Amino acid sequence: MMNTTHAAMGVTLAAPLAVVAPEFAPAAALAGLAGGVFPDLDLLSGQHRRTLHFPVYYGVAGLAAGGVALVAPTTWTIAVAFFLLSAALHCVTDAAGGGLELRPWEATDDRGVYVHPAGRWTPPRRWIRYDGAPEDLLLAGLLSLPGLLVFDGTIRALTVLGLAVSVVYVAVRKRLPDVETRFLR
C-alpha cells in the first residue's frame, strides 16, 4: 500500500477520540499519521518491510501503551499508543498488498512482511495488488474521509496533501521502475 494510505489509516484509527476524548483527538491523529508513515522509512535501508516493520512488536507495545493511556491519559501517553498501534496496523496491512519486487503487478515475489519472532516472511495477499494500484487510491480516499470530515486545521490539510500525492503517485506508478532503472545506470 501507499504510504499515504497508511497515514490516512492512522488518522482514521484516532477519529473516534473526537467523540470520546476530543481534547486528545488532534494529538492522537497526528501520532497515528506519523506511526502510519514511520515503518516505510526502512526503504532507505535496503531492507524494506524488514528493518522497521515489526507487526508483532509494535502491536504488543501499542497494546501496553494503550493500557497506560487508559490508566493515565495524557497527550503523550495517548500519542505514543496511537503511534505504535498505527505502526502495527501499517505492518499488518502491508501483507495485504503485493510483494517487494520492482514491478509488483507482476506478482513474482513471495515476501509480504517479515515477522521477526517467527524468523520468516509472510506471503503477500495481493488484496491491494500493489502500492499505487487503483484500488489503493480508492482505499486511501475512503480512509481519508475522517481526516476531512472529523478534523480541521493541520490534520485536514495533511489529509488533502496526502490525497493529492496519492493521485499523482497512482498516475505515475507503473513508470517508476523504468525511471529508477535509468537513474541507477
Task: Write up this protein.
By secondary structure, this protein is mainly alpha-helical. It has one domain (3-184). Helices cover 60% and strands 3% of the residues. The protein has eight helices and two strands, in the order H-H-H-H-H-E-E-H-H-H. It has helices at 3-14, 17-20, 25-37, 55-71, 75-94, 134-149, 153-172, 176-184, and strands at 113-115, 120-122. Strands 1-2 form a two-stranded antiparallel ribbon. The protein is globular. The relative contact order is 0.17.
Secondary structure blueprint with pairings:
Layout (H helix, E strand, L loop, with lengths): L2 H12 L2 H4 L4 H13 L17 H17 L3 H20 L18 E3 L4 E3 L11 H16 L3 H20 L3 H9 L1
Antiparallel strand pairs: 1-2
Helix pairs in contact: 1-3, 1-5, 1-6, 1-7, 3-5, 4-5, 6-7
Give the distance, in angstroms, between the N- and C-terminal Cα atoms.
27 Å
Q: What is the structural class?
A: mainly alpha
Radius of gyration of CA atoms, rounded to a whole number: 17 Å
Q: What is the typical, i.e. mean, pLDDT?
A: 95
Strand fraction equals under 5%
Count of discrete structural domains:
1
User: Numbering strands along the chain, what is their spatial order in the largest sheet?
Assistant: 1-2
Q: Helical stretch count?
A: 8
User: Shape, please?
Assistant: globular
Order of helices and strands: HHHHHEEHHH
Largest sheet: 2 strands, antiparallel
Binned, the helix content reads 55-70%
Low-confidence stretches: none
